[in-house]
Amino acid sequence: MAQISFPFTHYDLKDIRAGVTIEITLSAVANVRLMTNDDFDRFKNARQHKFVGGVAKKSPIRLTIPKDAHWHVVVDMEGHAGKAESSVRVVSKPKVPAGPRIVATP
Q: What's the pLDDT band for 16 if we cut at 50, 70, 90?
């Protein structure tokens, strides 16, 4: 099976709930790919994969987790010159939906 032919930085975010916002800080223009565990496996094997993100021309960028799953962030320089230092952090938690109000009656 083919492997990708360019270096990348990988961040394993583990299981994250939908609605969480992450922030990626970059020192240069780079590709940022937020993808599920299955898509990360496809990416590593140079197969077609889906991701959220793309070319990040400014820093920091924020991405919102679209669904509950095991997530990965990949930062790579494919198509760009040089190197980019990067970091990833969670900046917000998902909003908890308001549940029904329980009113006590005497």
A: very high
